[in-house]
Design brief:
Number of helices: 9
Helix content: 10-25%
Largest sheet: 8 strands, mixed
Distance between the termini: 27 Å
Radius of gyration: 18 Å
Shape: globular
Order of helices and strands: HEHHHEEHEEHEEHEEEEHEEH
Number of strands: 13
CATH topology: Sulfite Oxidase, Chain A, domain 2
CATH architecture: Alpha-Beta Complex
CATH class: Alpha Beta
Structural class: alpha+beta
Length: 302
């Protein structure tokens, strides 16, 4: 059953690419974020904080989504998530840290003012967007909880609540969704906890109220609606690697030279554009992150 659902999703994606049909529309209302900081233009090229490319429309970002907790239909996620309530949200940060803490959302967001980060987002399925996120570097949160010397990886977990997330009533994946990063990846300034996009709070279909964004990795690494962050000594299990380890690796770095077993990764369809464009190594962030993988075989450690 799981394979059939995923195959249907991939076919639907391919049809959308070929026909470039407009995605579903619907009104999205979230609160405007206060105090969003923009990175100085002079630092953009060196840091990668802002790419100089047209931004994907708010409508497409909020109505073309992979979020299987709600639906495997990209254009159906927004409707399925419309009533998702994040009131009273908490995030537990635990494991190999000196200062474990359960953060209420307000306390978590007070760790640092939201910064605008205009990032490319490349889905493993072969499509991409440019998204103006708002958030802060994950390293700032990790600094608050003080990782111990034994912490080598960071594990993340999404909310498990089939009543509020109807897609979790299916067996398409083993719930809850889990992801992980190596510590140096988690500490990199490009890795952010995002709480908004286009200057407004995240809509449910995009991972409200808090999600991970790692712009040089395929989109499935960007776990949504996070409730737990745990620092651990060993590489944690991750949902897609567990589902199909020969197709979805732990690292999941964007790499046009390593194809998915069922399709090429050399090009991508930018949502809202006609035609395909070449995919860039590390999604165009090679200057900023390439050194993290020096000496690694990126075909083996994909």
């Amino acid at each position: 059953m799981r394979a059939g659902i995923l195959a249907a999703s991939a076919v639907a994606t391919g049809v959308a690419y070929r026909k470039l049909n407009p995605v579903a529309r619907g009104e999205v209302k979230t609160a405007r974020l206060e105090g969003v900081i923009s990175a100085p233009a002079a630092t953009n090229a060196a840091t990668g904080f802002r790419v100089d490319e047209p931004e994907t429309s708010f409508e497409n970002i909020t109505h073309y989504n992979n979020f299987y907790e709600f639906s495997t239909d990209k254009e159906g996620v927004a409707a399925a998530a419309a009533d998702f309530d994040t009131k009273g949200w908490q995030v537990s940060v635990e494991g190999l840290v000196n200062q474990p803490k359960v953060f209420g959302l307000d306390d978590l967001l007070k760790i640092s003012p939201p910064e605008e980060r205009i990032y490319r987002m490349r889905c493993v399925e072969g499509w991409s967007m440019v998204i103006p996120w708002a958030g802060f570097s994950l390293s700032k949160l990790l600094g608050v909880v003080e990782p111990t010397g034994e912490a080598k990886f960071v594990a993340f977990e999404t909310l498990l609540d089939p009543r509020r997330m109807p897609g979790q009533r299916s067996d398409v994946l083993n719930w809850p969704y889990v992801e992980g990063l190596r510590m140096d990846e988690a500490m990199h300034p490009l890795t952010i906890l995002a709480s908004g996009l286009y200057g407004r709070a995240l809509p449910p279909q995009d991972g409200a109220p808090i999600r991970l964004v790692i712009p040089w990795k395929y989109g499935f690494k960007g776990i949504k609606s996070i409730v737990k962050i745990k620092l651990v000594a060993e590489q944690p299990r991750t949902s897609w690697s567990e589902y199909a380890p020969n197709e979805y690796g732990f690292y999941a770095n964007v790499n046009p030279h390593v194809d998915h077993p069922r399709w090429s990764q050399a090009t991508e369809q930018r949502i809202g554009e006609s035609g395909r464009r070449p995919t860039l190594m590390f999604n165009g962030y090679e200057e900023q992150v390439g050194h993290l993988y020096a000496g690694m075989d990126l075909r083996k450690d994909f």
